[in-house]
Amino acid sequence: MTVADPEARTRLRHPFHVDADGVNRPPGPDKHPNYGRFAATGSGVVPVVRQVNGESVPALLICRYADVREVLRRQDVFSRSAARAADPVDVTGTMLGMDGAEHARVRGTVKDLFTRPAVAGLRDRIEAEAAAQLATLRGRDGRADLLRDFAIPFTLHVVCDLLGLPQQDRAQFRRWGDMFLADSDMTRDEATRAAEEMGGYLWGQIERRRGCPAGDLLTRIAETAADQPMDVQIKLPISLVVGGWETAASSIATFLFVLRTRPYQGYASGWEYLLDHPGKLDSAITELERLHSTANADDMPRRVLADVELPSGARLTAGDVVIPSHDAANRDPRVFPDPERADFDRDPNPHLSFGYGPHYCVGAHLGALEVRTAIGLLLRELPGLRLAVPADEVRWKAGHAILGPEELPIEW
């Protein structure tokens, strides 16, 4: 089949929770019902429009699982670098904005440090950091903010330890990161300023390691990426440190919220189910990754470089901007039976929340281990943990690339 001329059809505003002011305001952890509907019915290719730097940018949202995987896999036809102007987050100079040999070269600087076996070797360090943050959490006398007092410092310290960033500078990185990941026009200037400030700081750290290696990730970048442009050397650690803590911390908070507020299999909550079935933790987290991914506005856009037919039969034209939607693909009933139902026994569960192909999230194994470590520890050590406020009073981040609560008051 052929997709009709996009300009001749009514376009939906994207992301689907964008308000009249152009700010994406998700009301909670659940994805918009459009995702399941578009994955299951119609062509699976939906005309949308998004605001980028004050301009309306038309695009096609790709919703079927096989089609999304094809777009993510084929850099020869679907280009990230050619679509940067259609992206509300400025990824110039980062792996996220590159294709082909350039992307492989920059990714190759660090990828062996984030393989499954390499991350498995970090388990003891990660568990020790989680235990240290749990001790701090317990010092809050039975009531705390899970993000401020546990999830953010835990994930921030893990990635900063890998990079070799000084303890005293880490709080500043959180402030920079919050601005860098803003995806609304109102905060684009703040994002630019944050990137410039982080860049200046990191360049100094990298330069210092050229003459005095420290055995950390910044030393690896200083030694193996010295032939790369300054912009690339700086933004590689920016993408690792910002993406490395924000996504994992938000997942910890979001998944705990869902586990504590949703019934499961005759239990009052998924949390209580896992207390009785601790062996289901890994598959439960995998299912939560499928249903409640941290991305707040689908995958990054690609530009079509040549006329192409997708596996579904839909045809795209060179020059089209496409947005592959892993949230829709994760609800494709052709792959996931009864896709909106949480099933901690779902097997197989080949969700696309970490991407697919060349741009598969380089830190996926690290983030997955952090989330499982954190929630497993909380289940064992604080089984009575619960929300300290009604679920509908939890506020969710607005105008941000990462889905998650602003704070998560808890008690035990």
Task: Describe the structure concisely for a colleague.
Residues 1-33 are annotated as: Disordered. The protein is 44% helix and 9% strand.
Account of the 3D structure:
The chain is an alpha+beta fold and 412 residues long. It has a single domain, classed as Orthogonal Bundle (Cytochrome p450). The chain is 44% helix and 9% strand. It is built from 14 helices and eleven strands. The chain has helices at 33-40, 65-73, 100-108, 116-120, 123-138, 146-163, 170-180, 188-211, 217-224, 230-261, 270-276, 281-291, 326-329, 364-381, and strands at 12-13, 45-52, 55-62, 78-79, 143-145, 302-304, 308-309, 315-316, 321-324, 386-387, 409-411. A six-stranded mixed sheet has the order 1-2-3-9-6-4. Strands 5-11-10 form a three-stranded antiparallel sheet. It has a two-stranded antiparallel sheet with strand order 7-8. Strand 7 and strand 8 form a beta hairpin. The longest helix is centred in the middle third of the chain and has 32 residues, at 230-261. The termini are far apart. The model is unreliable at 1-9 (pLDDT under 50). Residues 1-33 are annotated as: Disordered. GO terms for molecular function: heme binding; iron ion binding; monooxygenase activity; oxidoreductase activity, acting on paired donors, with incorporation or reduction of molecular oxygen. It holds the Pfam family p450. Belongs to the cytochrome P450 family. It comes from Micromonospora sagamiensis.
